[in-house]
Design a protein that fits this description.
Chain lengths: 109, 475, 487
């Protein structure tokens, strides 16, 4: 996907972008769903273009309501969860562990 | 009309004084559930047996002369996005169907310690994403005041449960109006506390920097009591405010004399005239009670919807990534890990949840972050600055809670944007992290309730409740 | 650990004037009792999924709360690496994988806790440290079926979340490393520092210290080439081998007209080569954003200074001190080995008791390999032994024999041991008599030696040592022979 210039809103969303975003989000979408999603997201993004009118150059982003800092817990062990109870709620488990289908990648780290 | 049901304060007093028993109160509520729940669909689960045990325990404690909690024997319903140990918690989503949390949310523990009787888990828009409770995997909830209409959302089940007399009070969560709007549509008091005043620990996250838990009640006094039970610092939530919970019940009779009430100089379009008429009545009532009305402006108000519908889905896209079919919840078996993720999430999430995950993922992705998410956070700053300037001139701001009264089922489901516009008055508070509540103030079109929203600065709950109590006396 | 020694194993020079540019990303697990954001034990080797809680498993509604001790250890490490400790934030790094319970990792992104540090390597080489930031570890997968537990072709995987949420510090070097020796020295020194400050047990074999290596090549003075990241480099030896292999691979590609793709590669230690793991094209888009469930981490100056004041003397300073005391080169293997074993204080105690520090360095290096930082043999007895050797009351061979006995017995008085063995160095007149006797008996050898055939001296010395039953000091014998010839 193309990278828009900083500050300007990108062009209308395409179905290729929607398909790529669906992959990032691990959502399997049918062709029909991608088409519908493309049109709905386009409509929303058009509406959201209203904020392009604002001069936001020197505005500091606000990600959290209050500037709390240094919230800690002490390094003390507290009894956790029971393995059997947790594994009983898992879709598949074996040998004290969660069982998953084989992966073709190595994840991170 | 809904005040024909007993209040939390009355129930607690009558049980403590021996006038009635917890079991008797519970059975009255279960009786009403039996009569109307099939029509309303307020609950995902009614925990009849557990509730009977808890009520019996309260009655035994009374007999034994034990010290009672402030909510001893009061039937309370919980939105089904609050973790309850060993009791199914679904968020009205197929992806979590059948999941029994191995732990309790902090607010659940506090209600239990106060002696409340948990009567069931209420329906919601899936993962709290919606304004009508029509986006539930388990069917929509109907408004008990007119079952052809929605109760509002996303905490529509919690609102309907109280409005129908199924519970004396309930808890909801409010990310962009999900307590206040259904309270308004169902004729109830609904509180969105200051961000950090009530613990989020054990509340299934929608948008972490916006979510807050609060009560639905019939009266302002009930809401004050509920807040005093669930509020206050929690070391298990890093964003929990360190301040002690202020007393609210004690300030309700203090009136509004000398208070400055903010009125929006530029009211956004789209409000029903009957709603605007009730606003005028509210200003007049407060004025005659000794307050002055001050015109204020929130220049960034119209941009809040955009900021909210970028910030909330962005956080949600990350918060909902954990539903991957590995550790809990449903799984669609396929041949490899990543196709299992895709298939499970495709089958487990409903359309609105998928739409918001897509929107949020897009807003955070490389190349689009600055244009969308980054800008939205800056707009968030602007609205916070607007509020700060406004609160120089006034103590609270009054707005409608919802531009309209309860709308018919199916009315807004075809166009997501129309539905999003329901939240125009409620969203700014969440973006700023401030306090707000909705108080019923008469009726509008179709003789349906209209709610007035009282907005207050962070930790302005005492002032906010004084104004709410005054409006209640005047209504 | 012997592989931590800095003994030079010179990496072969690269052909045709190529230069390698290397940066290291080292993950270390912090030595805390509990996890970074929850109260389950941080413990290696427990039964699978026994150290779990709602936060570790990413259960709905679970919220992280930061472990204060983990922060303290991160600051300790940062200060030891000469970093600036700054206000910092946590972000979410979003990606799906079975061992990442929330489908995001909480990590520090654009505001890490420690920045702009450095480490000195032998030869006054300065390696910049870009950052040393806090993040959480992942769970661990076992791949079942297919070929021998490998991920490719496996039938399914089993996941254990005991390690998920364990506190990590990721130390990112600047691309200042220019050969594999330096890379090995860097990792070894980092390990010594981690152990010295108590931040981590730094066991590469248990995965509590893990290295990713970034390698590119260029001609000197040219801009950096395209780099490849190598993962799964699990020992200091492998760090050197992987870098040398990868640099040569890249040079081969470039010299045959190809280009280097930016990619992640996997080090196969048994094959001694790297393989493509994934290319930049299919790299994830991590959608970093500020973690809304956590707040600003802004350690106050007082706390930072109290941590600084509690830091022990670091390995580099201890090596300098030991070198000063013993007269050895601070970059010599013996100095590195002794400091790594923590026996430098012991040598100082020997010197304080009047011993010869230089001889003590040799004794301790040779005989105390199995001892820890506090050898059982009393420092004053080692001091006495060095004095006896220095005063020629014992020969070097005799001193070594006595030392072995002292180590075997966990101590002992060297004077008594020498007496019991009948070790007493012969006085010079007795040795001179033996020299004269040997010259008489080995006339041929003496004649050759006088004619300048140095190796003929061996026969003479041998005869004298035999006659003295090893009690003659070899150095004294040689000196007398040389004096006789000079006449």
């Amino acid at each position: 996907m193309s990278t828009p210039a900083a500050g300007s809103n990108p062009a209308r969303i395409t179905s290729e972008v929607v398909a790529k975003v669906a992959k990032l989000a691990s959502l399997k979408l049918s062709e029909d769903e991608i088409t519908l999603m493309t049109s709905q997201l386009s409509g929303m993004l058009d509406h959201f273009a209203d904020i392009d009118k604002l001069d936001l150059e020197n505005v500091v982003p606000l990600a959290q309501p209050f500037p709390l800092k240094n919230v800690f817990r002490e390094d003390v062990i507290v009894k956790g969860l029971d393995r059997d109870e947790v594994l009983a709620a898992a879709p598949a488990a074996e040998d004290g562990r969660f069982r998953v289908p084989p992966s073709s990648g190595l994840g991170e780290q | 009309m809904t005040k024909s049901f007993a209040t939390v304060v009355d129930i607690a007093q009558d049980i403590a004084s021996g006038k009635t028993s917890a079991t008797e109160v519970l059975e009255q509520h279960l009786q009403r559930i039996n009569e109307r729940e099939s029509e309303i669909n307020a609950f995902n689960l009614v925990t009849t047996e557990q509730a009977r045990q808890t009520a019996a325990q309260v009655d035994a404690d009374i007999k034994a002369g034990k010290k009672l909690g402030p909510l001893a024997g009061v039937p309370v319903a919980l939105k089904d996005n609050m973790c309850t140990r060993g009791i199914e918690t679904t968020c009205s989503s197929k992806i979590l169907e059948g999941w029994k949390p191995p732990y309790d949310a902090t607010v659940v523990t506090r209600l239990q310690q106060a002696g409340a009787v948990m009567i069931g888990k209420t329906n919601l828009d899936e993962f709290a994403m919606g304004s009508s409770t029509e986006n539930s995997a388990f069917g929509p909830t109907k408004n008990p005041l007119d079952t052809s209409r929605v109760p509002g959302g996303s905490s529509g089940g919690s609102a309907a449960a109280v409005a129908a007399g199924f519970a004396a009070a309930s808890l909801g969560s409010d990310t962009g109006g999900s307590i206040r709007q259904p309270a308004s549509l169902c004729g109830l008091v609904g509180v969105k506390p200051t961000y950090g005043l009530v613990s989020r620990q054990g509340i299934v996250a929608f948008a972490s920097s916006l979510d807050q838990v609060g009560p639905f009640t019939h009266t302002v006094a009930d809401a004050a009591l509920m807040m005093e039970v669930i509020g206050g610092h929690d070391p298990l939530d890093s964003t929990s405010l360190p301040q002690p919970m202020p007393s609210l019940s004690s300030v309700l009779e203090q009136g509004v004399k000398g208070m400055r009430i903010g009125r929006l100089a530029d009211m956004p379009d789209g409000c029903e005239p009957e709603v605007l008429a009730r606003m005028d009545a509210a200003y007049a009532a407060l004025q005659s009670a000794g307050a002055t009305i001050v015109d204020i402006s929130l220049p960034s108000l119209s941009y809040c919807l955009t900021a909210y519908y970028l910030v909330a889905p962005a956080e949600a896209s990350s918060n909902l990534a954990r539903y991957d079919g590995v550790r809990y919840g449903m799984r669609v078996e396929t041949g490899d890990l990543h196709s299992m993720y895709g298939a499970t999430r495709a089958a487990g999430f409903g359309a609105e949840v998928k739409r918001r995950i897509m929107l949020g993922t897009y807003a955070l992705s490389a190349g689009y972050f600055d244009a969308y998410y980054g800008k939205a956070l800056k707009v968030r700053r602007l609205i916070a600055n607007d509020f700060a300037a406004a609160y120089e001139k006034c103590d609270v701001i009054l707005t409608p809670t919802s531009p309209t009264v309860a709308f018919p089922l199916g009315d807004k489901t075809s166009d997501p944007l129309t539905m999003y516009l329901c939240d125009i008055f409620t969203i700014p508070t969440n973006l700023a992290g401030h306090a707000a509540m909705s108080v019923p103030f008469g009726t509008g079109a179709h003789n349906l309730p209209v709610g007035v929203q009282v907005l207050a600065p962070a930790l302005g709950e005492q002032t906010m409740f004084r104004v709410a109590a005054e409006l209640e006396r005047a209504s | 650990m012997s592989n931590a020694s800095s003994a030079p194993q010179h990496s072969t020079a690269l052909p045709n004037g190529w230069e390698m540019v290397v940066g290291l990303e080292v993950h270390v697990e912090l030595d805390t009792k509990t996890k970074l954001f929850s109260a389950s034990p941080n413990r290696f080797g427990d039964e699978p999924n026994t150290n779990i809680d709602p936060v570790t498993l990413g259960l709905p509604g679970a919220l992280p709360v930061l472990n204060k001790h983990a922060v303290e250890l991160a600051i300790r490490l940062g200060l030891a690496l000469n970093c600036k400790v700054q206000p910092s934030t946590f972000h979410r790094k979003n990606y799906f994988y079975q061992d990442m319970p929330k489908a995001y990792q909480i990590s520090q992104y654009d505001q890490p806790i420690n920045i702009d540090g450095y480490m000195m390597l032998p030869g006054d080489v300065r390696i910049g440290i870009e950052r040393a930031h806090l993040e959480e570890d992942t769970g661990k997968s076992t791949h079942i079926g297919g070929t021998s537990g490998r991920i490719h072709g496996s039938d399914y995987s089993l996941v254990d979340f005991n390690r998920a949420g364990v506190p990590l510090v990721e130390i990112v070097s600047r691309p200042d490393i220019r050969n594999s020796d330096q890379a090995r020295q860097y990792v070894a020194e980092l390990r010594s520092i981690l152990l010295a400050v108590g931040a981590s047990d730094a066991k590469m074999e248990e995965g509590s210290m893990r290295c990713d290596v970034n390698v590119s090549v260029r001609k000197p003075g040219e801009p950096f080439g395209t780099r490849c990241e190598i993962k799964n480099v699990n020992s200091i030896r492998a760090v050197g081998k992987a870098i040398d292999y990868e640099a040569r691979r890249q040079i081969d590609v470039l010299e045959s007209g190809g280009t280097i793709r930016q990619e992640t590669r996997h080090w196969d230690d048994s094959e001694g080569r790297t393989h493509t793991l994934r290319t930049k094209e299919d790299a994830d888009d991590y959608r970093y954003f500020l973690e809304p469930d956590l707040v600003l981490l802004d350690p106050d100056q007082e706390w930072i200074e109290s941590i600084r004041a509690s830091l022990p003397m670091l390995p580099a300073a201890r090596r300098a001190q030991l070198a000063e005391l013993t007269g050895a080169n601070k970059e010599s293997e013996s100095v590195y080995v002794i400091v790594e074993r923590g026996q430098d204080e012991y040598i100082a105690a020997v010197a304080n008791a009047g011993g010869d520090a230089a001889r003590a360095l040799v004794y301790v290096q040779q005989a105390f390999a199995e001892e820890g930082a506090s050898p059982k043999v009393a420092a004053k007895d080692i001091a006495t032994l060095t004095q006896m050797e220095r005063d020629a009351k014992l020969t070097a061979t005799q001193a070594k024999t006595i030392l072995s006995e002292m180590v075997a017995n966990g101590g002992g008085d060297p004077v008594a041991l020498a007496a019991a063995k009948g070790f007493e160095a012969l006085d010079t007149s007795a040795v001179e008599a033996m020299v004269d006797a040997a010259i008489a008996q080995q006339a041929d050898a003496w004649a050759k030696y006088c004619a300048g055939e140095e190796k003929a001296m061996g026969a003479l010395v041998g005869a004298i040592m035999k006659a003295s039953q090893g009690k003659a000091d070899g150095k004294v014998v040689t000196a007398i022979l040389q004096a006789r010839r000079a006449k």
